Amino acid sequence: MSRVIVVGGGLAGLATAYFLGQRAEVTVLEAAPRAGGKLLTEARDGFLLEGGPDAFVTYKPAALELCRELGLELLETLPARPRSLVLDRGRLTPVPEGLMGVIPSRWLPMAMTPLLSWTGKLRMLADLWLPARRESSEESLAEFLRRRLGGEIVERLADPLLAGIYGAPADCLSSRCLFPRLLALEEKHRSLIVGVLRQPARARGPEMLGLRSGMSGLAEALQSRVNGRLKVRQRVEQVLPGQVRVGGEWIQADSVVLATPAPESARLLGPGALSEQLTGIAYQKVATVALGFHRRQVIHPLDSHGFVVPTRQAGLISACTWSSSKFPGRVPASCVLLRAYVRNPQESDEELAGAVVQELRPLLKLIGEPLLTRVFRWENPVYRVGHGELVSELDRQAPPGLFLTGSAYRGVGVPDVIEQARSTAERVRGFPASLDKLPG
Ligand SMILES: Cc1cc2nc3c(=O)[nH]c(=O)nc-3n(C[C@H](O)[C@H](O)[C@H](O)COP(=O)(O)OP(=O)(O)OC[C@H]3O[C@@H](n4cnc5c(N)ncnc54)[C@H](O)[C@@H]3O)c2cc1C
């Protein structure tokens, strides 16, 4: 049986080990005292806090399928109309209904929205007759959307919605890696609006789902299937094809899967072309700040799921989810839970939480101080223009028996990471099991 070492016990590493199943002798080595990485749920004083992801999309089926397979209890989001707001010139304004991603699919809400001027709305309609682009060079997401739909919709709607998810202004995000479906719409239908209207109706059902247990439940379920093959507090020190060093000792394997963040993978592999490519993947520090309040301390009705902030707008917060309005059963009676996102946090936890409260105070009419604060800090990959070429190059550079997987490469969301783990497991299974076929 083939021996496989998976370095990193986040979602990518655990899911790869799970998909490898019993057909390989797998060991997962995780540096932290717990597995799960960014899947982190904490119960505190009756509040259920999500430190990293709190939900996943269902139109990419990998996460939904895996959660069902693992028997996890899915949690639908609470109804809210409008579902999201955008901070526009100091006011929380509804995101118009009927957006498919960021492309309008309904006329009336777009015509009525105060987010766009009449000029901006007319410019958006130019998408109906503008020709398709012929050049093959990659555009940033903002360039692509600006060319088709105009600048206003990018600055006031697309940029805040996308930057909230992908962690950087739409001006530097890769259109090819993050929105290949939009590029395909232009290629096939020329107009994005026509393309969206011609899409077959999506299967009925919720667009986003969380887990009753919180997202840690997914890590725990995978961990229990991986059985005794997960070892925590095992920081890998170096990786060569066919072997890894941990606690000063080398362990041999037929295949090594690196499911660590790209900068850590580069460090583990040491100097060389592969590491150089890996360090080309940008990462950004982010923090989520959970704030619990008594309901009476928040004058705002909190009748949406939260709001996003355009990147050009100076401020600390890039988005804020009203977790208790999004999911049922996450707070004690008569309390609410907010979760703010901050990019590049510089402050200490206490200063950061204080500054976030000050920024939210006038918007939500907050009275007094929160009952609970908790700051979670992470580093997240940012897919810049050219990311696709970088990843193809990594594939070419990787020596036989060494596999890279995780959110750094082919999609940042939970379903993307699971899908990559499934395909990594398939590639590992297809790799010759004999040690003497490996270099080194
Ligand atoms: C704040 C935030 C909110 C998010 N929200 C959503 C959302 O709502 N929906 C969604 O779909 N996605 C969301 N995501 C994205 C999603 O959570 C991640 O893409 C996914 O969890 C990444 O999994 P991973 O295994 O690739 O990386 P990680 O979770 O970072 O796992 C890497 C693991 O490697 C370990 N490690 C590092 N170095 C070593 C070493 N030397 N030896 C051994 N182990 C090592 C780490 O300890 C860690 O456990 C969010 C991400 C963040 C940060």
Describe this structure in words.
- It is a single chain.
- A hairpin with an 8-residue loop joins strand 18 and strand 19.
- Strands 8-7-18-19-20-17-21 form a 7-stranded mixed sheet. A 5-stranded parallel sheet has the order 12-2-1-16-22, covered by helices on one side. It has a 3-stranded antiparallel sheet with strand order 5-11-6.
- The chain is built from 16 helices and 22 strands.
- The protein has helices at residues 11-20, 62-69, 107-112, 118-125, 141-149, 151-166, 175-178, 180-189, 192-198, 216-226, 262-269, 273-279, 323-326, 349-364, 387-397, 414-429, and strands at residues 2-7, 24-29, 41-44, 47-50, 56-57, 74-76, 85-88, 91-94, 99-100, 103-104, 208-211, 230-231, 236-240, 243-246, 249-252, 255-258, 282-294, 306-308, 317-321, 335-343, 372-382, 402-404.
- Helix content is 34%, strand content 24%.
- It has 3 domains: 2-37 and 212-281 and 384-437, 3-Layer(bba) Sandwich (FAD/NAD(P)-binding domain), CATH 3.50.50.60; 41-60 and 75-79 and 283-382, Protoporphyrinogen oxidase, mitochondrial, domain 2 (Polyamine Oxidase, Chain A, domain 2), CATH 3.90.660; 95-198, protoporphyrinogen ix oxidase, domain 3 (Orthogonal Bundle), CATH 1.10.3110.
- It is an alpha+beta fold and 440 residues long.
- Flavin-adenine dinucleotide is lined by residues 7-13, 29-32, 37-39, 52-56, 235-236, 259-261, 264, 268, 286, 288, 378, 380, 406-407, 412-414, 417.
